[in-house]
Structure formats: C-alpha cells, structure tokens
Amino acid sequence: MGTKRHFRVWRGDETGGDLQDYQVEVNEGEVVLDVIHRLQATEAPDLACRWNCKAGKCGSCSMEINGMPKLGCMTRMSTFEENETISVSPLRTFPVIRDLVTDVSFNYQKSLETPAFSPPEDLAPGEYRMQQVDVERSQEFRKCIECFLCQNTCHVVRDHEDNKTAFSGPRVFIRAAELDMHPLDTRTDRKQYAQAQQGLGYCNITKCCTEVCPEHIKITDNAIIPMKERVVDRRYDPLVWLGSKIFRRGQNGAAASGPALGESGLDQPAATTAGLPADGDHSAAADAERGVNWHRQVPRPQAAAVDEKGHLPISELAFDKPAAPSPFGEDVTFPLPDKSLNYHHPDQDR
Amino acid sequence: MTTRIERHHYDVVVIGAGGAGLRAAIEARLAGKRTAIISKSLFGKAHTVMAEGGAAAAMGNVNSRDSWQVHFRDTMRGGKFLNNFRMAELHAKESPQRIWELETYGALFDRTKDGKISQRNFGGHEYPRLAHVGDRTGLELIRTLQQKIVSLQQEDKREYGVHDARIKVFAETTITELMLEDGPDGPRVAGAFGYYRESGEFVLFEAPAVVLATGGVGKSYKVTSNSWEYTGDGHALALRAGATLINMEFLQFHPTGMVWPPSVKGILVTESVRGDGGVLRNTDGKRFMFDYVPDVFRKQYAETEEEADRWYTDPDNNRRPPELLPRDEVARAINSEVKAGRGTESGGVLLDIASRLPAEEIRRRLPSMYHQFKELADVDITKQPMEVGPTCHYVMGGVEVDPDTAAAAGRISGLFAAGEVSGGMHGSNRLGGNSLSDLLVFGKRAGEHAAAYVGGLDRRPKVSADEVEEAVDQALAPLSRDTGENPYTLQQDLQAVMGDLVGIIRREGELADSLVRLAELRERVAKVSAAGGRRYNPGWHLALDLRNMLVVSECTAKAALERTESRGGHTREDHPTMAPTWRTVNLVCSLDGDTVKLEHQPLPKMRPELIKLFDRAELAKYLTDEELAEFDALAQDALAEEADN
Predict the structure, then answer these.
(1) Residue contact B106–A55, C-beta within 8 A
(2) Which residues of A touch B134 (CB under 8 A)?
(3) pLDDT tens figures, A212-269
(4) Which residues does chain A have within 8 Å of residue B96's beta carbon, measured at their own beta carbons?
(5) What is the pLDDT of residue A279?
(6) pLDDT reported for residue A281
(7) Distance to chain A for B151, nearest Cα, Å
(8) Known catalytic membership, residue B254
C-alpha cells in the first residue's frame, strides 16, 4: 500500500557533507520520522538522528524539513504533495555532529547560567498556596519541551555566530519570564537580569520563535514583550528615573524593607531599585541608571519594513532576503555610529 | 581504531536521567557526594516526560478522607497482593512529602480553589489522589528535577568556581558494563564502563556506588509506548553483576494506546480521559465495560450507566464507572471485544469524550491530548471518538531490592536501583499515578543510601584493567564483524517473538516456543554486525542494546511459562484464574554463566497492623486457607486485647 517517495537527507559531519538522494517507501498516516527510521532499517543503518518519544512530547527530533524547523515526529507525510521532494537537514544554528544530529550544548549552557527558582524561606514544603489563575501564566512556559527550534530559528544567533556569547535566546527568555511570573519566586530582578545579562535587548520581535514553537507557546507576546516592556519602563523613562532621584530619595530605606514579592514595581521604581539583592552580579538596575545619558541625541524611531498586508514579514523563509528583515528599516546599516546611540555597555565601567 | 578511555572519579554514579535517576542524584549530591548522572539521551528528554496523568500521593487536598493507609490498600489491591508490602507502605507514607518538596524546587501543579495542589481521580485509586499539571505531569516532574540540578550546580559554581564541581550530567552516554571487584563477602561495585554516543569514545567511571535508574524494557515489544531507550539496560547490567530480578512475568499493557494512524501506534491516551468522563464503546456503540467487572471488584463499581454517570459529580454516594477499573482489566476487556469482532478495522475500540463534555472543557482539561490527536492523527477529540487498544507500557518486574535502602539484593554490594528498573513495589500490576511517586520516593532513598554506603567504606574498590579491556572488545565487536545480520532486522524479529508469543494473553505452547526462538536469536545477536564508524552510529548502539533486550526477554518468557495462573499483568489463557498459592511466590531470575536461572522465593509476609487494614472478605479472594486462618487468629487476639482493656 506504500508509495515510493523522493527524500534528500543531509549526510556528513563537521568537515562537510551534502544532501543525498533516497527513494523510500511511505505508507498512509506516517510522519517524516517514520521515514527516517525506515531509512535506518534499510539503506542507511548508520544515519544519525535523535528521537525519543515519537509523540511530540520530548523535543528530540528537531530538524529542518524543506528548510522549515520542525519536529520530525509531528510532520505528517500527508502535508506534502504526492510528488514533492522532501529535504531533511540538521538544525542550522548549531554545529553539526553527524548527519541530522547537532551539538545543542549552547542551549544547556545558557539554561545553566539562568538564575534558578528562589523559594520563599518562610514556607515549609506543603505550605505553598497559589491560585490556579496565577500559576497558569508560568505554566504556559513550562509546557516547553526544549526542542530548541526557537533557538535555532532566532536570527540573532542563526545568522550571527558571535552573538551567541551575549544572547541567551527565546527558550531562556521564557524561563526567565516563567520565574518572573511565578507567584512565589522571591527574586525581583528577573527582568533586569534578562536585559543586562541575557541579551533580551537583541530581540527585535520578529516572532519567528513563536511561529516554529510546536507547543504553540506565545513566546513573543506572552514572555518576551512583557519582559522587555517593563524593563524599558524602568531604564529609559526619564520621568521615572528623575522621580527615583528626587521624590523618593528619602523613602528608599523604608520602602526596601517592605514586601517586594512578585511586585512589578512599575509605579514604585525607587522601592524596587532599592529592594534589589545587593550581591555583585545583580546590579542590573544600577547599571541601567548609569547607562542613561540624557544629553545624547536619540535616533528617531523608524517604521519597520512591512509586507503588502501591513504585517511584518515574520519568517525568513517567506521573505525575499536571506534572514529576517530588520525592524530598524532596510536602509539602516550596523554598527551605527556610537555617538548617536543612547546605550551604555554595562561592562564598560569595570 | 583508538581505544583511548576517558576516566572519571565519582562517589556515586547514577545511570539514567529520568525521574528516579535525577531524584537519586539530587539526594546523593545533597549528602555531599560527588555525583555523575549518565543519560542515554539529552538531559531532560527521559521517558518520564511521557507520563501524563499525575503523581499519586495521599495529600487529601481534594478529599480529606484520604490517607496513606487508603493509598497503601489501593496499591496492594491493584498489585493483587503480590507487592512487596514494605515498599508499598513506604511509598504511600512518603509520597506526599516528595510531591511537596517539588514545589520548593519550583514545580507548578494545578491548584484547588483554596490554593493547594489539585488532585484528580484515576483508575484504582479510591479518592482523587493524583497531583497533576494538565496532562503533562511527567514533563513538569523532569523539568523541575532538571532545574533543581541546575540550581545545585549554580551553588557549586559560587562555592567552587565551576558548575560541575559536585554534580555533572553526562548526556548521550550509554553504560555497557558494570565494573566489579571480588571481595570476601561477594562482589563490590567498582565502576561503570560505557561510551559517548556522540563520538563513540569510551569512558570509564570509577565509583564505589552505582544507582540504576534505567527504566523499562518496552522496546522488546512491537506495539509499545516506550521510546528507543527502553532496552532493559539496567535489568541486564544488574543480572550480569550478580543481582537478581523479580516479577519479570508482569508487564503492564496500557489499555488505551493509539491504534491509528500506524506511525503512532502504541502512543498513550492518558487514563485521565476516562477519569474525566470518557467512556469505552465497541463498534456496536455499546458501553461494554459493564460486562467485564470481575467479582473481586463488584462491590466498588457501578452496575448501571446512570449510577456511573452520577459518580463524576457525586463520588461519595455513587460507585465508580467500570471504565476506571485497574489497567489490566480494561486491557483484557478491550482485547476480548476486538477478538469477538466488535473492534475497529485497526484492532481497537472507541474512546469517546466528545459526546460527554463540552469542547471547551475538553481542551482545558486535556490540552496535550487534544493537541496530540490533532497534530499526529488529524483527529479532533472534541468532535469524534479516539481509536484505542492495548500497548506495552510498563514492566512491574525488575531488580530485587531492599525496600528501605533500594540496595540490590544478593551478594553484590554498592548497587542500588530505583524506579521502573526495580521490582516489587507494584506487585503484579501498577496503578496509574503510582509510577511518578515511586520514582520520587525510591529515587530519594536510593540516592541517600548510596551516599551512606560510600561514606561507610574504608577504601574504594579498584577497577581491574582486564575487565575494562574485555568491555572494550565486547563493545567494538559488532563494528569489526561484517558477516552478521543488520541489528534492525534482529530487533524486529525479537519484537515479533515477544509481541506474538509473550504478549498480553499467553499460552503454554507459545511460551515454550518463544524460548526456543529466543535461543536462536541469541545465536544471531552474538554475531550481529554494524556498518559505519563509531561516531553517532545508531546501528552500532542498537547492536549493543540487543544483548540486553534479549536476556531480559528470556527472563520474562521463562517466568511467564512458570507461573501457571493469571494475575495482574500476566494472563494465561490456559490458567485463567488467580491461584492463592501462587500469591505467596516471587519468581526470581538470575544469571548462571549466560543462562537464565529461575527460582521460587516466598513473598515477605505483611506485618499484622498492615494486614488488618483490609476486610476479611476482600482478603479471602487472595489468601490461602492457612494465611486466612492466621489472619483470623490475629483478629481474635486483637478482640481479646480490646476486651482486656
């Protein structure tokens, strides 16, 4: 009952490789991973490919199918035309180990550097009380199966290898957001940390990560934007900054001792700033304050390049240029002359 | 070919990075021991993520009448009284604490109205007992433990300057042999030998204690919910190290696996679909489970559809629907319906939730089920029924351990086992939800006692160079042969033997036949050859796993042939009833040279205060006459004592 279909599978290792052609049997109801398994069992027993659950729950079989980052186990063969050639290649953003297997340790390293959950000290196990509506916001991000498709598709690292040191990527941002929104997490500087240490600012909201997420987590809208917006409030709003310097100055000590649990601090910038943990690497807010030079000329915001429907062309695959469009407009080239920038590198004063 | 071997020194090596392994590692690290976690896949991909329903713990958040005694009773009942009672007792007592602990690691369970951890109904549990997160509880558990390990590594980074100072994860690493040192009172663990999947390079861990947490054996079956990792590695490592396996004849076939489309055959449909109101129908539209309530359960289950339906809203005044019978009963019922020609074309029955709950409610309660069916099968479970049938899901049997310390029984010391790879806790059949709590309870115990064992040693056992050399040769053999068979063909043949002859319904002739075929397969597996090199070569990896799958399959087939009764996860068509005399017996497998040896061993006897938790009428269905007489004597003593006071 099966038909023969044409597959092109990337074979090779870090020294190079290419797409190899296979004619392989495909049966009704199968997914791309089934076909890879059939290849292993027949023509190519040493074809390297990661997989585990085969049910879209573990996020192991990430690959690029016809150029789209996808899970092999969740890509039904029926979504392709009968005579369509199907190309399967490894994730492009990470170094190839062999065939479809890449070295994804970048992601684990970034997770390792993300400050862990900080439990309330006054609650014993069994005493935690949270409302369903409050846990649901974080639960959305805890659905993440760590397939790293978002990390792979994010053009900040996909096209710029050198950004990998400074930029943690969408997977790590939703982890930061999850902890920020956790009703009982006691750290109050998650947003500042994401901005200062994890490169949240590199993200220019092209939403490619949301588009490829097999768990349909609204990475950009529900995690990255809320994390960005509030950080921006505190860092760049001159009134908030001025207010923190003038009006609240005398109250800092009193405010700092107040409860700061899960509080956003939006309207109490001084209190939040003063309430930050004092140990060295959490001085994001202080950095932010030092980094603002209000005498500089701020570049005017420009409209992003949009398509005929008025939307951002969100996928590089649908776009007429390699990689995603620049939200700063296509006529702006980088690096910008640094005199025109309203930005102060946090490490510069050290 | 290079035989460079990387060496590491650790106090405790945990093989397996699922729930049990991670929990054990956390505990060993908290006890101050240098700990290595060996993961066959990437960190956080373990099969635990597949557990959907929840973790059973008698916290009493939803129904305050729940207690460890009730949980203990349910567990023993589910296991048809073949459980190691002490394990069931520890499990019931300690699981609430283990769940609460997860919250301090950052877990976010679904909540009750008053902000506590919500608990849901599940097959075989008298009260709502399963802590859950939608239907992705296993993922939450793995992620939580994974992140706890990260947080410990961050502590170490602050203290020692490096993340890996006291706990390190070796991802995509397979252990092929345990290294032993012979001592005056039996062999001692000296280390573990394996290879990095990525590079094919060998690695030797020198460590006095090893915790096995490698999960199950499902990959020996054709239709299974288990992933490629489930090749019985821990079972086989333990056997070869001189430890014993018990209860290997008991395999749980999950009653509701997907049967269509073919590519996802075997993947689970969580029991919570039934707990939340889903019903099973045959192709005639009949809700057939009412015809399959066994006598032992008659009292607890509804007799009419009306009563069953009332139970979802008023569980105190109605009996539960028969769809919530223990898994083995449901699996057998579906099997019988299909055999009688009332199943679907693909050999399943229909599981209907669409007509029972509003679409919105289904999506809210069963989000990942909805998602899974939509994406994998293009089936909208809010509109149409699911096609389901039994799939090999869990092995109750495993390494025989000491209940309190999780140390492997027998003469071997320094070897511990927790989770699915250990045996005894679940008896002949595991209740849904008891697995996740089992991982936590005995994972913690294994880690704790492995650490204590290391602390009590006056010197570290040595790894012998000869043994390492032998392990290297053994591992490289499939690559150096080019005349043998393809490992994938051999695996398919093994799966066919196990699926067809040692499957859900067993017969003497077929079991005897399976042993002959397994012996033939053993010859062929000894000559298997793998094409390609050492770098990430799945063919080679499978060739090495085959040896483990084969020896464990032999244990299952031998024990299944020996046990001439039907109980829990072992159904003999030629011996369809439960025999009280068999209840008192554990079948113990060990390795003598390279042949599997089977022995009878009496079951440990339940302590008086525990056996008194049960009704005499209930015990009468399971116990022998002598045991019942003993129970009566106990009851009389108690009465007399009461009279004295």
Answers:
(1) no
(2) 139
(3) 999 999 999 999 999 987 555 555 556 655 665 665 544 444 444 433 333 333 333 3
(4) 126
(5) 43
(6) 44
(7) 5
(8) yes
Query: Tell me, which fold does domain A105-235 have in CATH?
Result: Fumarate Reductase Iron-sulfur Protein; Chain B, domain 2 (1.10.1060)
> Which of A34, A51, A112 is closest, CB to CB, to B228?
A51
pLDDT category at A304 given cuts 50, 70, 90 is low
Residues in chain B where the model's pLDDT stays below 50: 1
Model pLDDT, residue A325: 61
Q: What ipTM was assigned to the predicted interfaces of this complex?
A: 0.87
- How far apart CA B11 and CA B28 sit, in angstroms, is 9
Q: Tell me the two tokens of residue B145.
A: 């433990």
DSSP 8-state code for residue B41: S
What is the fold, at CATH topology level, of the domain defined by A3-102?
A: Ubiquitin-like (UB roll) (3.10.20)
Q: What is the pTM of this model?
A: 0.84
Q: Which long-range contacts (CB under 8 A, 24 or more apart) does A175-180 make?
A: A175/A111, A175/A114, A175/A141, A175/A144, A176/A114, A176/A200, A176/A223, A176/A227, A177/A138, A177/A141, A177/A222, A177/A223, A177/A224, A177/A226, A177/A227, A178/A138, A178/A141, A178/A142, A178/A223, A179/A115, A179/A117, A179/A138, A179/B106, A180/A227
Interface test with A, best of B26, B104, B116, B486 (most A CBs within 10 A): B104
Q: For residue B405, what pLDDT is reported?
A: 97
Tokens coding B183: 């001592």
Give A 106-165 residues with CB within 8 A of chain B. 108, 111-112, 114-117, 119, 123, 125-126, 128-132, 135, 138-139, 142-146
- How much is the pLDDT for B482? 87
**Count of beta carbons in the 10 Å neighbourhood of residue B8:** 16
- Ordered by start, the domain boundaries in chain A are 3-102, 105-235, 267-350
Q: How many residues does chain A have?
A: 350
End-to-end CA distance of chain A: 69
User: Chains A, B: CB contacts under 8 A, how many?
Assistant: 182
> Which residue in chain B has the smallest CA separation from A122?
B104
